[in-house]
Amino acid sequence: MDTRDRGRRTAVSGDSGDSGEGSLPGLTPLLYEATARLDAHFAACATAVGLTAAQANAVYELAEPVGMRELGRRMCCEPPNVTFVVDRLEERGLVVRGPLPGDRRAKQVALTADGLALRAELLAKLAEDPPLRGLGDADRRTLRTLLARALAESDPASADA
């Protein structure tokens, strides 16, 4: 049995099986399972609008024009990968590159009209049958608040400050 499968079964069945969470066993497998389901949903939505998951990630993150470096940070990608993804999107007429205001050496990426339309289509697909549909709006807001707090408090960058 693949250990990921065992972790997913544990998360779904509610067995604790997790010794890494101290006073709340089972949290890590549940987070892994939620992440896997969110990733699968995102990939399916990307395919439905004719994009790879990486391309959809870029389109999703381009709510406003950003520099290539910032886009890479948001996508959790190395610069060569961001360049490859943006090249493919540019070939399809979905993005344009130009100089980054304040730093003419750096490039800024922005969605074109077609890119904005495709982003709207992607966002609509993502809202269809989402993995966390079992939670009401109030529960999703609470979950978002708790996760944001946990991540902010464990951010390595904030520990240096």
Short description:
With 161 residues, the protein is mainly alpha-helical. The chain is built from 8 helices and 3 strands, in the order αααβααββααα. The termini are far apart.
Task: Supply the helix-strand structural class.
Answer: mainly alpha
Number of beta-strand segments: 3
What is the first-to-last residue Cα distance? Answer: 44 Å
Order of helices and strands: HHHEHHEEHHH
Radius of gyration over all CA atoms, rounded:
19 Å
Question: What strand line-up does the widest sheet have?
Answer: 1-3-2
Helix content: 55-70%
Tally of individual helices: 8
Query: How can the largest sheet be summarized?
Result: 3 strands, antiparallel
Low-confidence stretches: 1-19
Question: Which terms would index this structure?
Answer:
161 residues, 3-stranded antiparallel β-sheet, mainly alpha
Could you characterize the architecture of this molecule?
α4 (68-75) crosses α5. The longest helix is centred in the first third of the chain and has 22 residues, at 27-48. The protein is mainly α and 161 residues long. The chain is built from eight helices and three strands; from the N terminus they run αααβααββααα. The protein is globular. Strands 1-3-2 form a three-stranded antiparallel beta sheet.
